[in-house]
Amino acid sequence: MEAGRLLTVDDLLACPGDDKVELIDGAIVQRPMSCFEHGFAQSVLVAQSFPLVMRGGPGGWWIASEISVRYSEHHCPTHDLAGWRKERLPEHPSGVMTVLPDWVCEILSPGHERKDTLTHFLRLQRAGVPFYRIIDPEDRALIAYGLDAGCYRTLFTAAGPDETAVRVRVPPFDGIEIDLGILLGDVG
Q: Membrane spanning segments where (predicted)?
């Protein structure tokens, strides 16, 4: 391989049987191994969002976990969770997504925080993804951002046991309540 050559989606697809890699800014990178807290937060958020997935028409969503989204020839990350409004994408999607998501959620993994808090944050902001959410299971925190005039602004934050023992409605999912305590691991 040539030094300095940006890799493409075709290079990513040619990786031999390894679905634990993604294409970030022209480099194929290993995705982190998921810990229990990561998988638990992902599962709880999917379960709590299920009413939106089942709803057809206005207010309905397609939400998928571990979904690859092709933003450009040199950038195709695999998001922990991503969602598309059914109003904008009425047909059941399939394959690697090429349609810009309406919402992305990343769950921080130890040693890969920079990718989610900086690389994805800036890339998704630049691409125009309307909503971005970061969950930090270790610090029991959730930060939700919304695009405003091309820049993300903070819409919601919660951290620690005092702030997460509540049920909240967080954009863009104002139609459902999320139990932050369960989402952030406060279960017996």
A: none
87 within domain boundaries? yes
Q: Determine the Cα–Cα distance for residues 23 and 61; give it in Å rounded to an integer.
A: 26
Instruction: Give the range of the structural domain holding residue 45, as residue numbers without chain letter.
Output: 33-183
pLDDT, one tens digit per residue, over 135-167 is 998 888 899 999 999 999 999 998 876 666 688
User: What pTM value is reported for the model?
Assistant: 0.86
CB within 8 Å of 29: residues ≥ 6 apart: 21, 22, 23, 115
Give CA–CA dist 103/84, Å, rounded.
7
Give dist(CA 65, CA 105) in Å, integer: 9
Contact between 14 and 4 (Cβ < 8 Å): no
What residue type is 6 in one-letter code? Answer: L
Say how many residues make up the chain: 188
